[in-house]
Design brief:
The chain is of the alpha/beta class. It has 8 helices and 16 strands.
């Protein structure tokens, strides 16, 4: 992609000549209002009935035919597929629609959550609005005969609920006829107007681990006559992560981190039961697939040394999101066409998990990090915090990214 003398992107394909001016001021204002409405009414995973209804109503008003998923929340909507007989695979634009079970602690904004202990603190309201906006623009182009490729809008529930609503959505057939899939995730470390992108893994795998340890209990005066369960739990907590770190390639980034440990009720009684729970995160896909067996073996090895009986509940979460090179390049070209090459920056692989990865087990795809930080802002914000908010100009940027991707995609990648 080359730049014109005025700094704008020069069109290289017929579709790219259509890109300027796709998002008018009226639609920008409507989308900001839609996002704020969602932000004020967050719903948890698999409970997104109001959110689903709001999306469905707006798509139907645009003359589209959205279909609610069999799970009861979430929906899909195809654009430009009529009369094509399924001959060309669709490009899917995915959004997640659920909120988080935390209070909204923002002050001074009129769109603060109205639901106690619920907040859109991960940007899913933005993701949803971006895909909706892209759908409205693409529907208008399709009516004019200007959409070269059929597109599917996918509004997925329950991303925050392990192992993620993506698995249920796939069971509902949302990938039928899809050739590639794209998504964005808000990133408060990237300025609005830009995206972060990388080829290969962009997130990590994330699983949940729950361990129960049991023994006969006894008096703290005679630990040699029983199973010293507190010591056993402490050894599991400290030694299992160390063992795992020595049994896989360090570059795999396989890490066990504990978030809870409980045992006992009083100072002079050795308890009969102890519990530990935490997360397993991994940067490498193959190491993630091997992790359950490795962790079971390590836990049992340490527990047996202390004569503790174990019960291990390893709960699969999500694999890493691994961006396909061709689809990542499609997003890079789309952003360059809209905003210039400066608007695409490299990004790191994070240790966060994202169930978008389940789609990539079936079709090639890529996720971009959508910048939501106001340029020049010094306040450090992070996801999953009650004060999380975005620069709403990022909504238009996301819409432009997705519409440009749909227009320049020629199934040649």
């Amino acid at each position: 992609m080359s730049l014109a003398p005025d700094g704008t992107a020069e069109a290289e394909q017929p579709g790219e000549a259509l890109l300027p001016g796709l998002l008018n001021d009226e639609l920008r204002a409507e989308l900001i209002a839609f996002r704020r409405d969602l932000h004020m009414h967050p719903e948890l995973g698999n409970q997104e009935f109001r959110t689903t209804a709001a999306i469905k109503t707006r798509l139907e008003a645009a003359g589209l035919a959205p279909r609610v998923l069999a799970t009861g929340t979430g929906l899909v909507c195809d654009i430009g597929a009529e009369g094509r007989g399924g001959a060309r695979p669709m490009l899917a634009l995915r959004a997640d629609i659920d909120g988080l079970p935390i209070p909204d602690t923002k002050t001074g904004v009129p769109y603060r959550s109205t639901v106690p202990d619920r907040a859109h603190a991960c940007g899913h309201d933005v993701h949803t609005t971006v895909v909706l906006g892209a759908g409205l623009v693409l529907a208008d182009l399709a009516r004019k005969g200007l959409l070269p490729h059929p597109v599917r809008l996918l509004f997925q529930p329950a991303e925050e609920v392990l192992p993620g609503g993506a698995a249920d959505a796939i069971e509902c057939g949302v990938l039928d006829g899809v050739g590639k899939i794209v998504a964005v995730h808000c990133d408060p470390r990237v300025d609005a107007g830009r995206i972060g992108l990388r080829t290969g893994a962009i997130t990590s795998a994330c699983d949940r681990l729950e361990i129960s340890l049991d023994g006969p209990g006894g008096h703290t005066a005679r630990p040699h006559l029983t199973t010293d369960l507190v010591t056993a739990a402490a050894k599991v907590a400290s030694e299992v992560p160390a063992l795992i770190a020595r049994r896989v390639d360090a570059r795999a980034g396989l890490a066990v981190t504990w978030g809870r440990i409980e045992a006992g009720h009083t100072c002079n009684v050795i308890p009969q039961h102890a519990e530990l729970s935490g997360t397993v995160r991994c940067l490498d896909l193959q190491a993630w697939r091997e992790a359950p067996d490795l962790i079971h073996a390590a836990v049992n090895e340490v527990a047996e040394l202390h004569r503790a009986k174990t019960e291990i509940n390893y709960i699969r979460g999500v694999p890493p999101v691994v961006n396909d090179p061709g689809v990542a390049d499609l997003l890079a070209r789309a952003m360059t066409a809209r905003r210039g090459a400066y608007a695409v920056e490299d990004t790191e692989q994070s240790l966060g998990g994202e169930d978008f990865s389940w789609y990539l087990e079936h079709v090639p795809g890529a996720m971009a990090r959508l910048g939501v930080r106001t340029p020049g802002e010094n306040t450090r914000r992070d996801l999953h915090r009650g004060d999380f908010d975005v620069d709403e100009s990022a909504i238009a940027v996301g819409v432009e990214l997705f519409t440009a991707a749909a227009l320049i995609d020629r199934d040649r990648l």
